[in-house]
Each structure stands twice: as C-alpha cells, then as structure tokens.
Write a structure and sequence with these properties.
With 384 residues, the protein is of the alpha+beta class. It is 63% helix and 10% strand. A five-stranded mixed β-sheet has the order 1-2-3-5-4, covered by helices on one side. It is rod-shaped and about 130 Å long.
Length: 384
C-alpha cells in the first residue's frame, strides 16, 4: 500500500488538505467554547491543537508516528482531539489491526483523561467515556474496512493483470509453436524439392553429352521442382508473417502420398525399392502425415549423402501395433562419401521432435552390414 509522501497524488493532496481543514474547522469552535482549565491554557490549547492539525500532513508517510505523537495532545487539547481521531482512522487504514488496535485503546484511555479535564455538564462521566470509546471503535472499524476494501481491489487488479499476462504468454507460446511447426514443414518440403533440383543439375553438369531427350527431361524436373519450391516457400513465409489470416492451410500429405514421393525420387535417378506391408490409405491421418515426413526426410538424406546407393523403404503396421517406417541405404565410401549435397543438419532433429510430440519413437545411425538406417514408430490406436 502506498504511503510515502513523495508519491502523493492529486486526490491524496486534496484529501489531506480536507482532513486538516476539518480538524481545524471542528476543533477550533470546540476549543473556544469548552470549559477547560483557566489561565493561559486556552492559548496553549490553540497552539498545541494547531500543531496537531498541521501534523496530519504527514499522516500518510508516518501513520503510526503521527498517531502516537497526537496521543498526549488528544488527551489534553480540545482543538487537537479531532486531529487525534483522524490520526487513529489513518493508522487503521495504513497499518494492520495488530498495530492499530493497541494505539486505539491508548487513544480511548486518553479520551477518558480529556473528559476529566473538559467535563460534559449534560451527561454523567461514565456515559461520556462510553461514548468516546464507541466513537474510537467506529473510527478504527471504518479505517479497517477501508483498508480491507483497498486490499481487495488491489488483489483483484493484480489477479486480472496476472491473468491477462498469462493469456498473452499462452497466445505467444501458441503462436511460436505454430511458427516452429511451419518452419519444420518448410525444411521438410524445401529440402526435398531442392535436393531433387541439385541432383538433376549435377547430372547435367557431369553428363554434358547426354541425349537431348534426357537433358530436356532433367531440365523439366528442375523447372517443376523449383517452381513448386517457390510456391511452397511463398506459402510458408505468408503464414509466418500472418498472425491469423483467413487463408486456408493447404492439405497436408498422408501416407497415401508416399508412392508419388517415391516416383519423384526414382524419376530423379535414385534407386528406391519400396515395400508396403499395408494398404497406405488405411493408415490414420495424423500418423500417416508424420510417417510421410519420415519417408521424405529419409529419401532426401539418402539423395544428399548417398546419391548412388540403393534405398530400401519398408512401411508396415496395423491398428494396435503401430505404424513402422524404415529407410535403409548403404553408406558411401571414399570419394563418394564426400560428393553429397550439403545440408543444414537440422532435419533429423526436427523430425525427432515431430515424432516424439506425436507419441512415437525414432532412431537413426549405422546398422550392421554398413547400412545407414532411419526407423520410426508411430502409434496407431485400435478401434474400440
């Protein structure tokens, strides 16, 4: 709760000036009309009471100190009594009950002293003391109510701000996750397309004397894949720039699209032997989409790092057993090992993250017999 005077707002300034005005406006008539001790006491009362009223200016910064300072003044000064009551109220607003209640009890006892010095001729002493105690209790209760209300408002405001911040973080996290997913799709798609372009361009470079029909076919494949790569890149960049556009997302490939992917690789000069142990169209859509990306990454890596090796592709699975994909190719040796297409090295890492998020498993590396094997298992839930 804000208490330093250096943070006094315009409203606080007006309230503090009003409190001083009330203390003076009510306390001065009481002092002038009260029948207290004679002699110089009325003058002393005015001086001390005026100091008590001015002390209210510091009640926000030092509520406990002002309340304790006005305790003896409120017990003996008619003019300072109102200021002492305001100080008790301020203490209850700015400090917890364990601090405010003992000071309020002391002020109530000081009120009994005040009534002994300024007796009320119309009421018995005990009645006046009881009324003073009740008045102090009302001030403390009112101040505690104001404090509780402020704390409730502050708590609700903080909770609303926290909820808004958490919502913003959730939205940002979802947006980042979607962009990472799009980035993975971009890598998978463009790496496949560009590897085909590089492979055919390399064939044209190393075989300048190839028949015209072969050159035309290779040039057509290069043009077609470059065009598709540009379209896919444009779509991905548009999705990354847009935070929620209305353009529908293009349909994602499924396992039924694997034969077309294999045909493209064979058309690019790769030796691929597919072995489909199931009807590809029967695979579930989500698992099939991830399996398609596994096959795509496996063929792309084989095209990059083992361009003249025979690739064996096996896909099998059944409901309840899962979907298993294996891409196997011999590792090149010697000069052939250094002739591969350069890659970013992030494809398998992104693929592993994709498969793990789908609840599957993936492994890759050298196997027995000198082959490089990429295997993935994806869940395929049996129908209930």
């Amino acid at each position: 709760m804000r208490t330093p005077a250096t943070t006094r707002s315009r409203r606080d300034l007006l309230v503090d000036l009003a409190a001083i005005a009330v203390a003076v406006g009510v306390g001065l008539p009481i002092s002038l009309t009260s029948d207290g001790p004679g002699g110089p006491w009325p003058v002393i009362d005015l001086v001390v009471g005026s100091a008590a009223c001015l002390a209210l200016w510091f009640r926000r910064r030092w509520p406990l100190g002002v309340a304790l300072a006005l305790l003896p003044i409120g017990a003996v000064s008619a003019m300072g009594g109102v200021a002492a009551g305001i100080a008790v109220f301020t203490l209850a607003v700015h400090r917890p009950a364990r601090v405010a209640l003992p000071v309020a009890v002391l002020h109530a006892a000081g009120g009994a002293v005040y009534l002994a010095l300024y007796p009320d001729s119309q009421s018995p002493y005990w009645v006046s003391v009881t009324m003073g105690v009740l008045f102090t209790a009302v001030l403390v209760g009112w101040g505690m109510f104001v404090r509780a209300r402020r704390e409730l408002i502050a708590s609700l405001t903080e909770r609303a701000e926290r909820a808004e911040a958490e919502q913003a973080l959730r939205v940002a996290g979802a947006r980042l996750g979607e962009r990472e997913r799009i980035a993975r799709e971009m890598h998978d798609v463009l790496a496949h397309r560009l590897s085909l372009v590089s492979l055919h361009a390399g064939a044209l470079e190393y075989r300048p004397d190839a028949p015209r029909a072969d050159v035309a076919r290779a040039a057509g494949v290069i043009r077609d894949n470059a065009h598709r790569a540009l379209e896919e890149l444009r779509a991905v960049i548009g999705a990354l720039r847009d935070d929620g556009g209305s353009e529908p997302e293009p349909p994602q490939p499924t396992l039924a699209d694997v034969p077309r992917l294999v045909d493209e690789s064979i058309g690019a000069g790769m030796a691929v032997t597919p072995d489909y142990g199931l009807a590809l169209a029967d695979a579930p859509r989500d698992a099939g989409r991830h399996a398609y990306r596994v096959v795509q990454e496996g063929l792309t890596n084989a095209r990059k790092h083992a361009p003249r090796s025979r690739v064996t592709l096996r896909i099998a699975g059944a409901p309840g057993e899962g979907l298993r994909v294996e891409v196997r190719n011999p590792l090149p040796v010697g000069a052939a090992a250094a002739a591969g297409i350069p890659g970013a090295g992030a494809g398998l890492a992104g693929l592993g993250e994709r498969v793990e998020l789908a609840g599957g498993r993936i492994s890759h590396g050298r196997a027995g017999g000198g082959d490089y094997v990429l295997t993935a298992w994806l869940p395929w839930t049996a129908p209930a």
